[in-house]
Amino acid sequence: xxxxxxxxxxxxxxxxxxxxxxxxxxxxxxxxxxxxxxxxxxxxxxxxxxxxxxxxxxxxxxxxxxxxxxxxxx
Length: 74
Hints:
Layout: E1 2-3, E2 19-20, H1 45-62
Antiparallel strand pairs: 1-2
């Protein structure tokens, strides 16, 4: 992965202006805050958000990737 930083631009703070990668692309969709048994363990936002990120991490692992390989979350 290469961060794109034009020499005359100020360095981005907390984000990147562009990223160039090579290899496989993995797309995830419909990730919700339930566990592997499709059960919600909590109804609170923070707890479900933690579960969503754990689910994303598990899916990335299945693709041979890690969270630091993420390019975009929307």
